[in-house]
Amino acid sequence: MVSTATSFDPIVGQNQYLQLFATQLQHQDPLDPAKQEDFLAQLAQFSSVESLQNMNSKFGELGSKLDTLIGVTQGNSSNSLSNLQALNAGAGLLGKNVRYGTESGDVGVVDQIKPDNGSILVRIGDQFVPIAHIVSVE
Q1: Which residues does 46 contact at the CB level (< 8 Å), separation at least 6?
Q2: Per-residue pLDDT tens digits for 24-53
């Protein structure tokens, strides 16, 4: 016996579920209708499955972004682990108020990070500053 693998399409699954649910409503026994709790349980299960599918999709997107980050850091330096750690440190600074020098005006909010030839730069205002120049986080 030859078995063939089929892939599950979540959109088709959702449509089939809703068609089955509507058909069940149309053909229920009017003298013995389904209980409201049963319908609510089915809708809750459907909602849970849909949420899990959305979460799975987001994890897939996150995985591809991490692959991109790793590829960028590996392409810029042979010491990719330290670059990835520096990139992670820069990501932790996003939205934070930092001091990046000794002058009183050397303070600002980090709103972007980017790798640059083996180092990590953070954008503060309209300038990019090497992450090594960050002296404090306020």
Answers
A1: 14, 17, 21
A2: 888 887 787 777 788 788 778 878 878 888
Going by C-alpha positions, the residue among 118, 62, 116, 122 that lies closest to residue 89 is: 122
Can you name the residues that pair with 113 across neighbouring β-strands? Answer: 122
Number of domains in the chain: 2
- Between CA 54 and CA 48 the distance in angstroms is 10
Residue spans of alpha helices (H) in 77-126: 80-93
- Backbone φ, ψ for residue 88 (5° rounding): -65, -40
Q: What is the pTM of this model?
A: 0.40
User: What range defines the domain where residue 92 resides?
Assistant: 78-138
Identify the bridge partners of residue 120 per DSSP, sorted by sequence position: 115
